[in-house]
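User: My instructor asked us to take a sequence, write out its structure as tokens, and then describe one feature of it. I'm not sure where to start. Here is the sequence I was given:
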Amino acid sequence: MSEWGSRQDGIIDGHVHMGNSRQEQAMLAVREAAGIERINLVSIQKPREGSGLPQSLYMKARHPDTFFVFAGLNHAQRLSNGMVKTPTLAEQAGIFARIGCDGIKMLEGKPTSRQEMDVPITDPYFAEYWARVEEMRTPMVWHVNDPEEFWDPATTPGWAKERNWGYGPDDVTKEQLYAEVDEVLAEYPNLNAIFAHFYFLSADLPRAARFLDEHPSVRFDLAPGIEMLYNMSRDPAAGREFFIRYSDRIVFGTDLASGLTPDQARFRAGIVFRWLETEDTFRVPDGADFLLGPPEDGVIRGMALPGDALAKIYRDNFIRAVGPQPKPLDRAAAVEECRRLAAIAEGLSGAPGSATEASRVAEALGE
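Assistant: Let's start with the prediction itself. The structure tokens for your sequence are:
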């Protein structure tokens, strides 16, 4: 367990990924190594694979007091030009709530999502959905944008290039993505949104402050984006002032994943804990996962936040946005949804739906 986060009780990690249901024990080991009490599994749907949401539902069923689940939207009907049928996005929001999901994970706003489905979030395709989730006060972890250096091949990190997270003149711009969010929030001002990765505004704290001031219903999460720590380490006093001022608007997150080793989980969570809690100057440790980059990439300077700010960030702000406990899972509804996702995957890929993660989880939950 990290020597830092252990000073706080009841830490909730609002941004964690589950690989597949076979990694149950690996996820539990990651949680233990990181020193996290409860975890929110943000579940990006992969319609052709019948994966993403099912494995998170499996963990909620197996460990109902430990795992929150945010379900990703499924755009299979749009992406297949109607070859397969899905509920509308607004209907999906209702289905997720009935199953017992605690919120929705949105990747719509990341440039790679725009490459896959070139539909702005301001398009009428999303209108009924925005109205529904605003009415329901559905919590959302929403990934919008990427670091500014990803639009310049000379500054895009190697680990990002490996994942095709580099963008050019044919891709949507960072400012366009921000403008679309502003338009959505102007029409739906009460969206219960947690913007992932500090909304990629860590290099411009005055702009981040203006955004939070203009949109009182939203929050930022701290899942690194290692550039966030480097950007704020240029002026840790300004970072500390921002974090204290907006301590009720920031949600702890690590981007932990079930595919990490316990040591990698300890390092990943530990650098965020250490950055928040101490005045240390340090680098990413050797042995950290590759998404944090090599240790020589930059220096991190801690902010030594006071205990009351840490309590809000580590636990209280997530509880205010989502609730104190994971919602109970409706197993029958979860089985039905997994079977539907397996059928969608078969329709898209032609491969047997019985081989999908969705089918495996449906069988396990139906026992």
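For the description part of your assignment, you could build on this observation: Residues 58 and 364 are 8 Å apart (CA to CA). Try explaining in your own words what that tells you about the chain.
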